[in-house]
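Note to self: keep these together.
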Amino acid sequence: MRLIKGCAWVGLLLLTVACTTVESPALSQKSAEPTTTPTATHTIPTTLTLPPTSTVAVTVTHIESDTHTEQLVDNAPFNTTSTAESAAIVVRASPTSTPVTDIPVTPTVADNPQATTEPQTTPTTTVSPTPEPAAATSHTVSPVVVTASEPTAYETTITISTYGYEAGFVPTTEDDPIFPYPRIDHGRVTPSTSRSYRAVVLENGYVSVTILPDLGGRVYRLVDKATGRELLYQNPVIKPTNWGFRGWWLAAGGIEWAFPVEEHGLNEWRPWQYSIGYSEYGLAVFVSDNDDRTGMTVGANISLDANHSYVTVQPWARNDTVETHEYELWANAMVALNNNTVTGETQFIIPTGQATVHSTGDGGLPGSGGAFGWPTHGGRDLSWYGNWSNYLGFFVPTGSADFVSVYDHGIDQGIVRVSNTHGWPSGTKIFGPGTLSPSLWTDDGSSYVEVWSGATPSFGSKATLAPGQSMGWTEHWYPVHGLGGLNFANQHATLRISPTGNGTDIALTVTHALAGRLALYADGVALAEWPVDLQPGQTLYANWTGTASSLGVALIAGDGTIIAQSGSVP
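Structure:
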């Protein structure tokens, strides 16, 4: 094994395939446009300093091959070195490294709470990997399931059965709205065969993340190490569907980047450039591609640090051309929590009272552009996937979705998306195929739902980037389990508060080691308090017996700062 130091950027330059395709019958349900008038322009967030702003030292350990050559590249973010396809590396984060990116964010932390009073009743508290009924005045902490560790990254390959979709490519002409990208003739697509794809695995003690540069730089896997469960959909076959802006789309799974248009974008199917370095959020994989239509660059930074259970995702776009361009930028997470399927016990937890239909086959809902109540409409609680009668896509109002969760109550496992800045991402969309046949996107009956994050409020709403401008946002994705659902989430913690017949149940998880206290309030008065000393992967359960109204719960740090809260808290 050979150890190499001083490599600032490690990656592979992938040749993109210049091809094109024929118009084919498209399934119209998923690509329907809302009837609302698109926004002409959209305010971009704080200008980003994109990778690299400085050179950092990365320790590279070769495992499988000795053929890799390293090169130090100054101020050339997407120039990368070549390597054999079988080469594997391990990159270990240096705690003193200089950040490569600088995306300013303001963490959401509430004001200090009022002083709490002594509990009026004796609470019971349990901390264990699985919820058990609280007992008398016991207070126990189970062994830690997972522990913090420095993030590592290594290159490998994975094999996925893949249809010969390139054989169906048909060139487009300048009058085609997707030019110069290909359309596809589905009749010319050849049968599936095994195909090898390069992969970069980024992991710490809590989660493992796999990125596929060869399939649009997507995050393909996200594994909760506490439970061993896969959180993202992984299509066992790469198969072109009839959906998407081009009239075709590879429903490969994971988290894909859609640019410069809505509906899965134009360039998510082809190889993207990538490199490994550091962001302000830790060890990072940087993926990017130059859009053939606008000439702009689109990318994403995927980062892990040692102490958090979340993966930080930062989609971005940059205009290095001499013209102003309209664009849309979306990140689409395809979620499947239960062995690559979505069950009727799956719940969408979104803090909003209203949503707007994008497309649906459900006759009990308004048509495209129509508003409906969330979660209940027409007597149905639509937050439960089992209550959907057909496919449905809808947008959530900007500013109302600082967190979104998909939670499967059957296996007590969920995934959470939180943002650092209120109002970003600007757009949130949910889609589920409902009763549509899985044969439209796969060959094995597996299923998924989608959680979209966007630079604009809805599909068809355009933003603009002037020459030299860049934009992007920061969000965190992390696993939760053992909560029985949730009411609140941020980058620090997740809370559930649920009334019972004779009191209240509370559950808490954290994304980093945290000591403090958990306080229960009613009408601004403290009812009970429990000590907190938690690690990621643990769940605290508390129960209060009594009758009260306007209940609220707050997680309070040792210095008195409220870290997280749900309900009425003083």
